[in-house]
Design brief:
Number of domains: 1
Number of strands: 14
CATH architecture: 3-Layer(aba) Sandwich
Number of helices: 13
Oligomer: single chain
Helix content: 25-40%
Largest sheet: 8 strands, mixed
Shape: globular
CATH topology: Alkaline Phosphatase, subunit A
């Protein structure tokens, strides 16, 4: 017997679609660019050229379009559009571990044993309405977490791989392989509906199982949706546009992100890996990390601006922590959570703004420590979501979305 779970769209995909039937409407979107591994704040957006050599590193600062804001010399394209983004320096916490640090930065709440907090995209998926033939929350390549207390139906749809320049893109549950055509897929869907007739009279099924018929049908429709297939098809872009973003995975991932936001997806996560530079920090940054980051992110922000979407799309760029102020014996920097920085753009963010600072060696905040909780509250506010929204869950009490943080007023327009 043909089971629903054996088809290209399974329960989790249907659950994502079920979320589309219940949330409130909005036209805002969000993008998270996660720099996995912990980028070196003092070698990117918080340089200390006057510090001793063993602290300041090898990179020189360059001026940006924002007076008084200098950033790393290997970020020239972002420097030219510094009036379209803002930087938060002096973010501080004490979770210098990749796993729990990531959880903290991507939920705005310290991980604990009692409450499992949702990812930013899961909250957006829960709170915002979107087109019926598109998932609301997509994570390019893999997921960085889940929907926590909101439930799995608000988790991300992960693409399973990153797009490659000049190559057709295939995504689990969307691309049909092994000779499967849309027509043949629709025939299988029809067969599944016929088989479901045998079970329509069963009154003991729970709500989740009884709802499978309606939401799995939406999943079938999504697979054959021209809008979804078109959004994932980078071959529709000109070669000049593809090259503007960069032929690397990061640039192509951001180009796909732009297309998904343009199509109506509410939240997209993009990952740029490799920032855990315990060894050879400066060659790694200058050679393989900063150039694609600079090219891809600047092209992405410019495209949103050109398409009239930057004002309605909130963008957060962050890692899980910073790196040690003093260079180690392997020309690297180690984990350091006492100081880090993050970039915000679009949405309700006031652009060209610098908030916070660190001391002369980038060791810790100077006079105003900011926390991941504050960063998350600001991001949610820019998306039009109240960070103090309360949710009911199975812990016996209401749960506040961001328990401790407050929006950073200077960043909100």
């Amino acid at each position: 017997m043909l089971r629903l779970g054996s088809l290209t769209a399974g329960l989790s995909f249907s659950q994502l679609l079920q979320a589309s039937a219940t949330a409130g409407a909005t036209e805002r979107s969000g993008v998270l660019v996660f720099l996995r591994g912990g980028p070196s704040h003092q070698d990117t957006f918080d340089l200390k050229p006057q510090a001793p050599a063993e602290f300041r590193g090898q990179f020189a600062p360059i001026q940006t379009r924002v007076p008084g804001l200098d950033i790393c010399e290997h970020l020239p394209q972002l420097a030219q559009i510094a009036d379209r983004w803002s930087i938060v320096r002096g973010i501080t916490h004490n979770l210098a571990d990749h796993g729990i640090g990531t959880s903290y930065l991507l939920t705005g709440n310290r991980p604990g044993q009692t409450v499992h907090y949702p990812l930013f995209g899961s909250v957006v998926s829960h709170q915002m309405q979107g087109p019926a033939d598109l998932p609301r929350f997509i994570s390019i390549d893999e997921s960085l977490g889940d929907a926590g207390f909101l439930g799995p139906e608000y988790g991300p749809l992960s693409t399973g791989e990153k797009p490659q320049y000049g190559q057709p893109f295939r995504m689990r549950g969307i691309s049909l392989g092994d000779g499967m055509t849309i027509e043949r897929y629709r025939s299988r869907a029809a067969l599944t509906r016929d088989l479901d007739i045998f079970y329509r009279g069963i009154e003991t099924l729970d709500d989740q199982v009884r709802s499978l018929d309606r939401y799995s049908q939406q999943a079938f429709e999504l697979i054959s949706s021209p809008r979804c297939r078109d959004a994932l098809d980078l071959r529709q872009e000109t070669d000049a546009e593809s090259q503007r973003f960069g032929r690397h995975e990061f640039g192509q991932s951001l180009l796909m992100t732009a297309r998904l936001i343009e199509a109506g997806v509410r939240f997209v996560t993009v990952i740029l890996e490799g920032w855990d530079t315990h060894q050879d920090n400066f060659n790694s940054l200058a050679g393989r990390l900063l150039p694609p980051f600079d090219q891809g992110l600047s092209a992405f922000l410019q495209r949103l601006q050109q398409r009239g979407l930057l004002q309605t799309t909130s963008v957060l760029v962050t890692g899980e922590f910073g790196r040690t102020p003093k260079i180690n014996g392997n020309a690297g920097r180690d984990h350091w959570a006492r100081a880090m920085c993050s970039l915000l753009a679009g949405g309700g963010i006031r652009s060209g703004t610098v908030v916070g600072s660190t001391n002369e060696r980038a060791e810790e905040p100077t006079d105003r420590p900011l926390t991941p909780d504050d960063l998350a509250a600001t991001f949610y506010r820019s998306l039009g979501i109240d960070p103090k929204t309360e949710f009911q869950a199975n812990v016996g009490r209401p749960i506040t979305l961001v328990r401790d943080g407050q929006p950073i007023a200077e960043l909100l327009s």
